[in-house]
């Protein structure tokens, strides 16, 4: 029954999505529904999945990432730790590569596979064709974090923490604090931070 209820909830959320998804490239606001839930994406394993499937009992963490951005290189040593935190709390996690303008180079599927292997990624790493998911989210940078709750509503967006250069010198663990508070049913403060990173490499209009 629990699985059925969650499936029904996500189906209802998809119907409501049109009214809650930002127009144009406006960034998602807290409380907005997870967009593009049924959009098929290809994982580095070659398997096809979608955000609805990756959403777990207590939510979904979406991180827009890539292979070579210096800011990603700073923060990616936290990815597997975040995956462990998400798994512990029954939250799905996915890395989304939306750099379509670099798809024939640094952000090709082959390079994504090599990156995941080199870093030992444990989470899904998927291609966002024509940056459609990034556009729906209003994602700006790599990395850019979006945390959704059990009802597929946005609970936190922005930074992983306040020190990409050295995780041992972090003062504010924005994302892990948000995960803990979300699962506990407590308020998240701050619920938004300004993302810092490389611009997502979109195709020219």
Q: What's the quick description here?
A:
The chain has helices spanning 2-20, 51-54, 70-75, 79-88, 109-119, 132-137, 174-184, and strands spanning 41-43, 48-49, 60-65, 92-97, 124-127, 141-142, 144-148, 154-158, 198-199. By secondary structure, it is of the alpha+beta class. The chain has a single domain, classed as Glutaredoxin.
The percent range for helix content is: 25-40%
Mean pLDDT: 91
Sheet/helix structural class = alpha+beta
Strand content: 15-25%
Notes on the structure:
Helix content is 33%, strand content 17%. It has helices at 2-20, 51-54, 70-75, 79-88, 109-119, 132-137, 174-184, and strands at residues 41-43, 48-49, 60-65, 92-97, 124-127, 141-142, 144-148, 154-158, 198-199. The chain has a seven-stranded mixed β-sheet. A two-stranded antiparallel ribbon has the order 6-9. Mean pLDDT is 91; it is low at 1-24.
